[in-house]
Each structure stands twice: as structure tokens, then as C-alpha cells.
Design goal:
Layout lengths: L12 E7 L3 H9 L1 H4 L6 E2 L8 E6 L4 E11 L3 E7 L4 E12 L2 E9 L5 H28 L5 H5 L9
Antiparallel strand pairs: 1-7, 2-3, 3-4, 4-5, 5-6, 6-7
């Protein structure tokens, strides 16, 4: 009996988190690298804004991504295309003010490449990654605590343990 499954639609990533800060402050945390480096990447060549092209670096993993801003609506919506030469996806942030001091952030990512297994693996990895990013952003913005979730996720000396 053949138990092979075929995807009926391309996989997508969704991560969500409520952050107890005003929407403008939360939005800035994702576009201003002086803030974003506190919870996500280690360096950026510039701030995200309409039409921007920047490079993000994760020095602890010796990885970088070229980023192109596709849509930019202050305090509401941000969409980027990012990745490397072989694989580029689209990530979209939606920021919704639940109250003056509470913001709901939703991150969706689409456009994974490869066969079904590769696309599912990328979507699962990205889902986990974006949840770490949102948890790190929440800790930083609400409590001023830099948790180091992204660099500590898979340090060099733990690769063999996965």
C-alpha cells in the first residue's frame, strides 16, 4: 500500500504574539536594527523603509540574508522578500493595536522552494524561528531583557545533538 502524501497547497508559516507595548514601538522594533539586533539578527546594513534593500547578518551562524522591502505601512504592515540566491521567500508582518499599550503581531511567510518534503521542512523551521523572534521581541520590549534565543537555539557545539 502506497502511503505517500502529496501537498494540496504550498506550506506557509504563521507565528503570532501579543506584546504589551504601543503599536508604534513594536513596529519600530522590527524596522530599526538598533532594536532588532537585541532579539533577532546580529547586524544590518540599514533600517527597513519603503523600497529599502538591506543585508541582515547572524554572525554566530556565519549566515546572512539579502532583504528587499515589498510593502511598508507605518505601524500596520511590513512585507519583505528575503533569503539567498537559491531560496527567497516573502515574510509579512501585520501589527494590530489591541489597546493603546497592547499590540498583536502576526508573521506569515510563503514561497518555500523544493519538493514537498523540503518545503514542509522549511516551513516548520521558519515557524519555530519566528516564534523565537517574537518571544525575544516580547522579552526585550516589555522587560528590557535580552534572552539570546536566536544565537542559543543551535550553538556550534550542539549540532551533533539534533
Amino acid at each position: 500500500m502506497d502511503t505517500t502524501m502529496t501537498l494540496t497547497k504550498a506550506p506557509a508559516t504563521r507565528a503570532v504574539m501579543m506584546i504589551r507595548r504601543p503599536v508604534a514601538e513594536v513596529f519600530d522594533a522590527f524596522v530599526d536594527p538598533a532594536i532588532t539586533t537585541r532579539f533577532w539578527f546580529s547586524a544590518s546594513s540599514g533600517r527597513l523603509e519603503e523600497g529599502a534593500r538591506v543585508r541582515w547578518d547572524w554572525s554566530w551562524y556565519d549566515v546572512s540574508a539579502d532583504v528587499r522591502v515589498l510593502a511598508f505601512e507605518r505601524d500596520a504592515h511590513l512585507s519583505i522578500e528575503w533569503g539567498d540566491e537559491t531560496s527567497r521567500t516573502v515574510a509579512t508582518w501585520t501589527f494590530t493595536a489591541l489597546s493603546p499599550d497592547r499590540t498583536f503581531v502576526r508573521i506569515d511567510e510563503t514561497g518555500y522552494a523544493g519538493d514537498d518534503d523540503a518545503m514542509v521542512a522549511q516551513a516548520l523551521d521558519s515557524t519555530g524561528g519566528f516564534h523565537l523572534v517574537l518571544a525575544g521581541a516580547k522579552a526585550w520590549l516589555e522587560h528590557g531583557v535580552q534572552l539570546g534565543l536566536v544565537p542559543d537555539h543551535l550553538p556550534d557545539d550542539a549540532h551533533a545533538l539534533t
